[in-house]
Amino acid sequence: MAAPLRFRAGPAARHIIERDGLQPEGVAAMAGAAGGPKWLVLAAMDKFLFGEWLRPRKQSLPLVGSSIGSWRFAAAATADPIAAISRLERLYVEQCYSGKPSLREVTETASSLLDELLGDSGASEILNHPWARMHVVTVLCRGWTGLDAKLPMGLGFGAATLLNACKRDWLALFLARHVFVDRRAGSLPESAFPGFATKLLPLVDNNLQQALLASGSIPFVLEAIEMPGEPGYYRDGGMIDYHMDLPLSRDGLVLMPHFSKTLLPGWLDKFRASRAFQHGDNTLVIHPSDEWIATLPNRKIPDRSDFKRYRSDDAARFRDWYTVVGRSQELADFLEERLVRQDLADYIEPL
User: Fold this and answer.
1) Is residue 327 pLDDT above 70, yes or no?
2) Distance of alpha carbon 62 from alpha carbon 254, whole angstroms
3) pLDDT tens readout for residues 190-208
4) Are the CB atoms for 237 and 34 separated by under 8 Å?
5) Mean pLDDT of 295-313
6) Could you tell me how many helices (H) and strands (E) the chain has, helices first?
7) CA torsion, points 16, 19, 23, 29, in degrees to nearest 10?
8) Labelling 240: which of 70, 165, 194, 321 has CA 20 to 30 A away?
9) Which DSSP letter does residue 133 get?
10) What are phi and psi of 36, to 5 degrees?
11) Rounded-to-integer distance, Cα 186 and Cα 145, Å
């Protein structure tokens, strides 16, 4: 039987694992990819990693996420990560919408979800966590990409898609990377986020929830988001940093629990699938195997198309998505076994 998880590592990451194994203090940063409902296959793994394996850690750990990756890390960085991740499971699975929801309806639903996820103390818990250092990746829109009207927004992102296909750097004509950062000791320098007119802005109690909302503001699905004290309109950080192709550490191991074998630098690279990762040398990517995915409902990981697939039957979507959440324990158990036995090096494949 094929293993449920695959472990793919760059050369430097493989060397670290062969030399030291994978240890809680050996992780220099964690990356959280954008991907909407796909995160549900990672739910149990997140609970194990943050609720057990990393729990005794002393050294600060940068958590860098865009879109749902930032939401996952926000839940994981609360005082009770297992309870918060379970709450995010429920809130995410049980989203319901009208037949053709407006941008306003989806934005209000996402805002309410974050309200309940964080509660009264979540932001304070995250910003006072003993070792987690949140980095919420967003994009500041330029020109028509910041408008919510379909025609100008479509023209703006259409032009961005065409120029991005020619050269990724040209995406900076339309989008700038703004990362909202816990500025305590242990946060990452600007050099970890090259290009795209990057700015590191302080992540504080009164903007944390709004930064998370902005990081998940998918164009054509949610409204563009205004940030307290910052001019302009913000959208999903995955537009630039979809699967976290970033130099998050020079010599330490970057760990990325991921939902599939696909690795794309930016969301618009879906239309330029040949674009390779540039910063994977010291990255370990852990993701479900194709064989395991084929045993899930609909033989796939949940994705946003499921909202249309189950449009008239939310109960069926709840059933199938909760099935995936339950099955995600198989991935967590397999990872835990590798860490207990310290035989991870036997499973490493090239990234």
Assistant:
1) yes
2) 10
3) 999 999 999 999 999 999 9
4) yes
5) 94
6) 11, 11
7) -10
8) 321
9) E
10) 55, -135
11) 33
pTM above 0.70, yes or no: yes
- Here the tokens at position 30 are 């964690």
- State the first-to-last Cα distance of the chain, in angstroms, to the nearest integer: 22
Residue 152 in tokens: 């100008």
Angle at 237 between CA 74 and CA 199, to 5 degrees: 95
What's the CA gap between 208 and 177, in Å, rounded? 17
Please name every residue paired with 133 in a beta bridge, in sequence order, or none if there are none: 62
What are the residues whose beta carbons fall under 8 Å from the beta carbon of 284, sequence distance 6 or more?
Answer: 7, 8, 9, 10, 13, 17, 22, 253, 254, 255, 256
Which are the contacts of 25, defined by CB distance < 8 A and separation ≥ 6? 57, 58, 59
DSSP codes of every residue in 31-71: EE---GGGGGGGHHHHHHIIIIISTT--S-EEEEEETHHHH
CB-CB contact of 222 with 216 (8 Å): yes
Q: In this structure, what token pair is assigned to residue 241?
A: 């940093």
CA-based Rg of the chain, rounded to a whole angstrom?
19
pLDDT digits (tens, 9 = 90+) for 106-163: 999 999 999 999 999 999 999 999 999 999 999 999 999 999 999 999 999 999 999 9
| CB atoms closer than 10 angstroms to residue 196 | 20
3-state secondary structure of 17: helix
**Residue whose structure tokens are 């203090």:** 25
Instruction: Tell me, rounded to whole angstroms, the distance of Cα 22 from its chain centroid.
Output: 21
> What's the average model confidence in pLDDT over 319-345?
97
Portion of the chain with pLDDT greater than 70, in percent: 100
Half-sphere exposure (CA, 13 Å, Cβ side) for 295?
14
Sign of the four-CA dihedral 97, 101, 106, 112? negative
Nearest alpha carbon to residue 82 among 38, 50, 125, 57: 50
Closest of 195, 163, 161 to residue 179, by C-alpha: 195
- Give the SS3 label for residue 175: strand
Comparing C-alpha atoms, which of 135, 138, 141 is closest to residue 171?
A: 141
Structure tokens, 195: 């290009």
Question: How far from the centroid of its chain's Cα atoms is residue 142's Cα?
Answer: 23
